[in-house]
Structures are given as structure tokens and as C-alpha cells.
From TrEMBL:
PANTHER family the UniProt entry points to: GLYCOSYLTRANSFERASE
UniProt keyword Transferase, yes or no: yes
Name of the protein described by the UniProt record: Glycosyltransferase
Superkingdom assignment: Eukaryota
Organism: Rosa chinensis (China rose)
Length: 472
């Protein structure tokens, strides 16, 4: 009879809900599948379609298991299965509560299937104990990189933000390999909140469960942030495997039908700016207007992704903008094929909200960035890009906000002059050339990292071997 040791390794992935989590997770599942691992993704009814199409076209046998999100149980309307669909604070709290109620369903799945490992998002703090019940390791996938993990752990440990007298006074994050300054304004709400909420409970639980988990899978590569990869492992004593950039594994096919590529094909190398703020950030009309004015004033050619349908009254655009910009710029409404756009040789700069996937996709494509952090761990990412790697310039965003706060803000946070200045700085002149050559060098390192024998390729193999040895 065949023993389990001869069967392929089986890993179950349980990502957080939302589009930003879907993209890397599919790439990671494919990556493991390409190394002979049987992979299964667990998600909820509403989120399943985000996975099913890319899985079908992946050419790999990736299984999708669908569970029910307990909306009714916590008093949410049916279908609120992604954090960005919970539009009020009250709904958000209920949403977080609901994520803690998913445990029995995962318990049942693990009991039925007995995989070799459960990879679950950091916010499913309870997953470590559920996996332990079945004697399998739980790995964490944060969707972020080593630098923010080190920065936030040191902040929690040393609390330097409590020793300054105002929200705008800067402090140095203690104990890091580089001298990184921040302000309280730039920290996630969790650091500045004294009342306990469902969210703060969740963050605390996830910090505790991280200590007990088997380790962390990181979508990054060693050469990008080696000091921080070492710091995380050696100073905090945690196990971690860097396996990225996972987007490079999934080389984006250029959709020739898409008009923006046709347009890009006629542009000079590194001459076009790409502007996109990820899947969750929505700017107010007044902020979009400032962007439009800044873009026009800079004279740069651009592709600008705006999450808005076309309608009659476009108050977020200056009068006659689209006509004047004909040939100079393209506005994509809705979802853009970002990876393929960034990889196009005509793209010379990227205005980004500093979501980790976006940053790593730009790094992989060798594209310099203008950093405009908004929420989550994006202010840390800005420091990595501008101060440590030197492959971007800041636009000057100063204050962290939740995605909801941000979308209802009436006033623009960043003015058109600052946008114009940053656009010129990243595209024209000696500083721009220096930044571009650094970005290109990192892009080449990223490609080597995922090739046979590269640092990420080797770490992925090491992780697979490790999981195999646990089985024995
Ligand atoms: N993305 C895309 N098209 C869009 C917006 C986003 O393909 O119009 C992808 C982008 O390439 C990245 C992910 O969605 O892989 C966004 O993740 P990120 O971590 O940058 O930001 P988040 O959406 O989580 O804030």
C-alpha cells in the first residue's frame, strides 16, 4: 500500500477577502503547483469568482473550496464579504467579527482533507490553533514584505510614538538597520487608538498568533531587503521564506485587444507615467481634479486608472481635459491590466499608493515610483522605496487614513503643484536618470531571484523540503 510520504504535498490556502489578496494568492498557488504541490484555495461565495476564472486559465489543477461568510449571523446584509463592501464603521466591526466566526468551517475542511499545511492570512489569528488541532503547521501570508514587518514589530516593542509630543513630530523607529523616521500621523490607526474595537482585538490576536505559527511566506526577494530579511529572522527569531516576486512567475500576457497597449506601442521607451492606486483606494473628486491639473501642467504622457464609470457630469476633470489630452494620455476606467502595463517598455514612472503588490510589480519591471501612501502599511513601504532603495520620490502625503475616511474626504490632500513637481522629478533630469538606473538594476535582480538557483527559487524549495520533513 502506498504511504502518504509518496503522495504529493498538499497545501491549503486561506487568503483574506478582497481583490488585492486574490492576485498574489493565485500566483503563489501556481508557483507551488509548478513544484509538484497539490494546492487548494478556500474562499467565500462572493469571492469565489475572483479565483475561478484565473484558476481555470492557469493550466494547473488548483482546487477551489467555497465556504459561507456569516453575514446574517453578525447582522450584516448578505453579500458583504469583502472589507471594502462594509462601508460604515459599524459594518466594518461586524465584518471583522464575522471573520472570527469562519473557524468551524475551516476546522471541518481540515478534518476532512488533512492537508500537510495551512497557509492563512495574518488576520485569521485563530487559524494557528485550528491547524495545531490536526497537527499541521500553519504558515502566515501577510501580503507584505520584511521591512514593514520589522518596522511594526519594533514600534510595538519600543513604542517611540508615545514619546513625542505631537502627531507631526518625527521619531526614529528603534533597532532597525537604517535610521527611519516616522510620525504618528503616518502610523496605522491601531497605534493611536486607545479604545478596544473588533479591529484592535483582531490585530492583537494576529500578533500573538504570529509568534506561535510555524512561519511566514513573504512575497519579496532577498536582494531587495536583505538587512530586513535577516533582522526579521535573527532579531525576532521567526521562520520566514521569501518566494517572490510572485508576479514574475505569472508573466502577464499582453492583451492586444486592449487599446492602451496599442497606444503604448507608439511611445518612446520610459516616456509614459502610469497612475493607479490599487483595488481599494478611492479618492474624492477634488483630489482627482488636483491630479488632472498636475498631470496636465507637467506635460508628461500618462495612463491614469480611475475607478469611476463614465457619466455626464465629470466634476473631477477640468473642462475640456480629455480633448486636450487626446494622444497625450489615456484614462482607464475600472480595472487595468497593471502588470502588463508596468512591463511595457514605454512606461517610465508609476504613481502608486504603495500597496505591496504594486510596489513589487514596479520593482520587477524596473519602473521608478512616485509614492503616495494612504492606508494599511503603505507609509512604511514608502520609506523602503524612497529612503532605503532610492527608487522613488515622495509626493508628500502625510496622514494615514482608513480607506473609508479617504473616500469621503472632501478636501484634496495633495495639491496639483506637488504632483506636477514629483512627476517632473521622476521623469526629467539627472536625479531621474540615477533613480531609473537603480530601478533597472533591481528589476534584473528580481528576475534572477525567481530563476532556477535564484534566492527565491531556492527558498521555495527549502520550504517544500521543510514541509516534507515535517510529514515524515
Ligand atoms: N490591480 C490591477 N488593476 C487595477 C488595480 C490593481 O491589476 O486597476 C492589481 C495590481 O496589479 C496589484 C493588486 O491589484 O497586483 C493591488 O494590490 P496592492 O497590494 O498594490 O494594493 P491594494 O489593492 O491591496 O490596496
Amino acid at each position: 500500500m502506498e504511504t502518504k510520504s509518496h503522495q504529493p504535498l498538499q497545501i491549503f490556502f486561506f487568503p483574506y477577502m478582497g481583490q488585492g489578496y486574490t492576485v498574489p494568492l493565485i500566483n503563489i498557488s501556481k508557483l507551488f503547483a509548478s513544484h509538484g504541490v497539490r494546492t487548494t484555495i478556500i474562499t467565500t461565495t462572493l469571492n469565489a469568482p475572483l479565483f475561478s476564472k484565473p484558476i481555470q486559465s492557469s493550466g494547473f489543477d488548483i482546487e477551489l473550496l467555497v465556504i459561507k461568510f456569516p453575514c446574517i449571523e453578525v447582522g450584516l446584509p448578505e453579500g458583504i464579504e469583502r472589507p471594502n463592501l462594509a462601508t460604515t464603521l459599524e459594518m466594518k466591526e461586524k465584518f471583522f467579527k464575522a471573520t472570527t466566526l469562519l473557524q468551524p468551517q475551516i476546522d471541518k475542511i481540515l478534518d476532512q482533507h488533512r492537508p500537510d499545511c495551512l497557509v492563512a492570512d495574518t488576520f485569521f489569528a485563530w487559524a494557528t490553533d485550528v491547524a495545531a488541532k490536526f497537527s499541521i503547521p500553519r504558515l502566515i501570508f501577510h501580503g507584505t514584505s520584511f521591512f514593514p514587518m520589522c518596522a511594526s514589530l519594533n514600534l510595538l516593542l519600543y513604542q517611540p510614538h508615545k514619546k513625542v509630543s505631537s502627531d507631526s513630530e518625527s521619531f526614529v523607529i528603534p533597532n532597525l538597520p537604517d535610521k527611519i523616521k516616522m510620525t504618528r500621523n503616518q502610523l496605522p490607526v491601531f497605534f493611536n487608538q486607545n479604545v478596544e474595537t473588533e479591529f484592535t482585538k483582531l490585530v492583537k490576536a494576529s500578533i500573538e498568533s504570529e509568534k506561535k505559527s510555524y512561519g511566514v511566506i513573504v512575497n519579496s526577494f532577498y536582494e531587495l531587503e536583505s538587512n530586513y530579511a535577516d533582522h526579521y529572522r535573527n532579531v525576532f527569531g521567526r521562520k520566514a521564506w521569501h518566494i517572490g516576486p510572485v508576479s514574475l512567475f505569472n508573466k502577464a500576457a499582453v492583451d492586444e485587444e486592449n487599446g492602451c497597449f496599442h497606444w503604448l506601442n507608439f511611445k518612446k521607451p520610459s516616456s509614459v507615467i502610469y497612475i493607479c492606486f490599487g483595488s481599494m483606494t478611492n479618492f474624492s473628486d477634488s483630489q482627482l481634479l488636483e491630479i488632472a491639473v498636475g498631470l496636465e501642467a507637467s506635460g508628461q504622457e500618462f495612463i491614469w486608472v480611475v475607478k469611476k464609470e463614465k457619466n455626464e457630469k465629470e466634476e473631477w476633470l477640468p473642462k475640456g481635459f480629455e480633448q486636450r489630452m487626446e494622444g497625450k494620455g489615456v484614462i482607464i476606467r475600472g480595472w487595468a491590466p497593471q502588470v502588463a502595463i508596468l512591463e511595457h517598455e514605454a512606461i517610465g514612472g508609476f504613481v502608486t499608493h504603495c500597496g505591496w503588490n504594486s510596489i513589487l510589480e514596479a520593482v520587477s519591471a524596473g519602473v521608478p515610483m512616485i509614492t503616495w501612501p494612504v492606508s494599511a502599511e503603505q507609509f512604511y513601504n514608502e520609506k523602503l522605496v524612497t529612503q532605503i532603495l532610492g527608487i522613488g520620490v515622495v509626493v508628500g502625503a502625510q496622514k494615514w487614513s482608513t480607506f473609508e475616511e479617504n473616500s469621503v474626504k472632501r478636501e484634496a490632500i495633495v495639491q496639483s503643484e506637488a504632483i506636477e513637481k514629483a512627476l517632473t522629478r521622476i521623469m526629467v533630469g539627472g536625479e531621474a536618470e540615477k533613480i531609473r538606473s537603480k530601478a533597472n538594476a533591481l528589476g534584473e535582480m528580481a528576475t534572477r531571484a525567481v530563476q532556477v538557483g535564484g534566492s527565491s527559487f531556492s527558498d521555495l524549495n527549502a520550504l517544500i523540503e521543510d514541509l516534507r520533513s515535517l510529514r515524515a
